[in-house]
Amino acid sequence: MPVTETFRVREVDGTREYLVIATRADISTSTLDRRSFLPGISHYRLADGGGSLSMVDNDTFVIIRTGTRVRRIA
């Protein structure tokens, strides 16, 4: 899966920052006549191997393993 985005997030209480990597697998919609793809759902994970994130909104995520809420840093 290719990396589509990288960005930093910070815990809501401001104690730690993390680097997030977003990947996306495209969905094949090919037919016998032509090859085509639709963008799939993005998957967000911590770059340090700390686990996956669940998206709350465009700027807010939850680290699934710990339940910690983090926000995108502008």
Please describe what this structure looks like.
The protein is an all-beta fold and 74 residues long. It has one domain (3-28, 36-72). Helix content is 0%, strand content 55%. It contains no helices and 8 strands. A 6-stranded antiparallel barrel has the order 1-2-5-6-7-8. 8% of the residues are buried. The model has no long low-confidence stretch (mean pLDDT 93).
Give a short synopsis of this structure.
This protein has strands spanning 3-11, 17-24, 27-28, 37-38, 42-46, 52-57, 60-63, 68-72.
Given the structure, what is the number of helices? 0
Quickly count the domains: 1
Average of pLDDT: 93
Main-sheet strand order equals 1-2-5-6-7-8
Query: In terms of per-residue confidence, which ranges show pLDDT below 50 for 5 or more consecutive residues?
Result: none
**Overall number of strands:** 8
Beta-strand proportion: over 45%
What is the CA-atom radius of gyration, in angstroms? 15 Å
Class from helix and strand fractions: mainly beta
Largest sheet: 6 strands, antiparallel, barrel
Give, in order, the helices and strands. Answer: EEEEEEEE
The end-to-end span amounts to: 26 Å
Categorize the overall geometry.
elongated
Give the proportion of residues in helices.
Answer: under 10%
